[in-house]
Amino acid sequence: MGIFFARCSQLGADIVTMWARYGSQYLGGMWSTLKLAVLGTAIGCLIGFLCGILSTIPCAPQDNPVKRFFLKLIRVIIRVYVEVFRGTPMILQAVFIFYGLPYFSGNVFHWGNVFVASLVVVSINTGAYMAESVRGGFLSIDPGQTEGAKAIGMNHVQTMTHVIIPQAFRVLLPQIGNNLIINIKDTSVMFIIGYGELFSIHRAAVGASYLYFPSAAIEMVAYLCMTLASSIILRWLEHKMDGDDNYELVAADQLVGAAGTYTSPKSGSPYDEQSKEFKRKKGGEQA
Predict the structure, then answer these.
(1) How many domains does the chain fold into?
(2) Is residue 248 assigned to a domain?
């Protein structure tokens, strides 16, 4: 037990030493990680929503053959894109996009900015996951919503933008948050193409100090702080989108004020449907 406490004390001292030397670099790496994760998730969501809209365009047998051909082609392209980028690791996608494009273009095309290349990788990868989630979110909306929109003359784009997407967004918000948290952690693979995120800062600090575990402890706490902060913000946003839990009607409403005050007419009065006078009057009107 004494050895354990001694090692914990030594770990604390090493962490303090590492933070004193490389604290600013760790903070810079956290900022780079958050910037890439947030922007990549936002762009990936846009890609996912676009793929979801294109995948759900109605296609009937009586439609124009050209329209049916292009819709089927678009759906095949989306399916290939989703399967390829969901079925391969992000680290290999980064290698193929960053090094593969210059290789196949004979260095005609090359990435001048590592951040842009990293953003493209994260965005495309996120879009592949979001495409299926968005499609499922659209299908979860009551078909009566679409039928009602078409009944008042809306086309598919108008139906999606004004009716389906606003409702599906609330359903998809937890999945969007989940992808953000995943991206905060998975951006660590971008060190492979030289992007200066948190994990690459950890590798550089370890190479200079040889204190691998203390640096890993700092990195783990940093990732945990970023993901917890993201979870708290997303939960708050979900709560705001849910609206107020109090559904009591306003007492000043005239209808509310009259609620419960109505009483049936007295038996035998001219307003009593069961009275002889009311039946006689009703019979005279029908005659």
Answers:
(1) 2
(2) no
Using CA atoms, how far apart are residues 234 and 177, in angstroms rounded to an integer? 6
Nearest to residue 124, comparing CAs of 50, 28, 232? Answer: 50
Supply the range of the domain harboring residue 271. 254-286
In angstroms, the Cα distances linking 177 to 95, 170, 180 are 26, 11, 5
Q: At 107, which CATH number?
A: 1.10.3720.10
**Same structural domain for residues 60 and 7?**
yes
For the segment 148-202, what is each residue's pLDDT rounded down to a tens digit?
A: 888 888 887 788 888 888 888 888 888 888 999 999 998 999 989 988 889 999 9
Does some domain include residue 230?
yes
Helix 198-209 with 212-242: angle, nearest 10 deg: 160
What pLDDT sits at residue 276?
62
Name the phi and psi angles at 34, rounded to 5. -65, -45
Place of tokens 């550089």: 204
Residues 161 and 35 in one domain: yes
The pTM is what? 0.77
